[in-house]
Amino acid sequence: MVAKETFAVSGYFQSVAPVDSQTPVLPARPEPLALDPSKTAVIVVDLQNAYSSKEGYLDKAGFDVSTTGPVIANTLKVLSSARKAGMPVVFFQNGWDSEYKEAGGPGSPNWYKSNALKTMRKEPELMGTMLAKGTWDYDLVDELKPQPGDIVIPKTRYGGFYNTNLDSMLRSRGIRNLVFTGIATNVCVESTLRDGFFLEYFGVVLADATHQAGPPEIQQASLFNIETFFGWVSSVNEFCELFPS
User: Fold this and answer.
1) Chunked in runs of 10, what are the mean pLDDT values of the chain (245 residues)?
2) DSSP E strand stretches across the chain
3) Contact status, residue 92 vs residue 86, Cβ threshold 8 Å
4) Domain segments of the chain as ranges
5) CA separation for the pair 175, 10 (Å, rounded)
6) Of 23, 72, 136, 143, which alpha carbon lies 20 to 30 A from 107's?
């Protein structure tokens, strides 16, 4: 007898996984998730020097970036598998124009809550170096330069759907499932996944290809939030075993 499984697929719960189903099923929490590669995209969130490198914005703002290396290495594995499976790859770059007009002035809550803007106000000599387009800080890390066919989308706020063409780009390609890697789990990754949830996308975070801004318990809190309320959580090994490169 075929063991019964429960997994989410195209908005429904299938109580029995069909024996002849060709749709790959990703082991995940709180339940396995069906991932048709033709309907799935990988979203790489803000793997820029600002968030991943010593002397980048997060480091200068007092956040620990000493353990971000594995996130980059694991994302490389994910991208190899995704490209082999024919999945679109989307890179996000977070930041603003060199004069920070896009960041918003005192009339914007971003002016008060952005740690980059607050750090530059405290240390004016850093003005123009943090998250400004055209700077090293804004650049994607060298290891993750986009390849032909990859999509790069700039964004000016935490969520990747806000004021971008992400939604229309995904819908025009028939994408329903979003696989997330990147930094920071509790800020831009979770914000983008939440917004995708509200737009009826199935979002799954590969936990060991993400990193938090803050102490380690913040990572666990964000993953709990995601798997309980907004999406699914899996791992790089599970994804790469399902879609071998």
Assistant:
1) 46 46 88 94 98 96 95 98 98 97 96 96 95 98 96 98 97 97 98 98 98 97 98 98 95
2) 7-9, 12-14, 25-26, 33-34, 40-45, 89-94, 151-155, 177-183, 202-211, 232-234
3) no
4) 26-242
5) 11
6) 136
Q: What is the spatial distance between Cα 168 and Cα 172, in angstroms, rounded to a whole number? A: 6
Q: Which helix (H) or strand (E) holds 171?
A: helix 166-172
Q: What is the pLDDT of residue 14?
A: 54
Q: How far apart are CA 148 and CA 122, in angstroms?
A: 40
> Is 240 among the catalytic positions?
no
What are the distances in angstroms from CA 160 to CA 73, 154, 163, 195, 202? 23, 8, 8, 8, 15
Q: What is the pLDDT of residues 27-37, one digit of tens each?
A: 999 999 999 99
Q: 83, exposed or middle or buried, with CB in 10 Å at 0-12, 13-18, 19+?
A: middle
Q: What is the pLDDT of residue 169?
A: 97
Catalytic residue among 60, 188, 195, 240: 188
Residue 220 DSSP SS3: helix
**Alpha-carbon gap, residue 235 to 227, rounded angstroms:** 13
From CA 79, how far away is CA 1, in angstroms rounded?
36
Q: How far apart are CA 241 and CA 192, in angstroms?
A: 25
CATH architecture of the domain covering 26-242: 3-Layer(aba) Sandwich (3.40)
The CA–CA distances, whole Å, from 189 to 84, 86, 87, 101 equal 24, 23, 19, 24
From the candidates 39, 60, 77, 155, give the one annotated as an active-site residue. Answer: 155
- What pLDDT score does 21 carry? 63
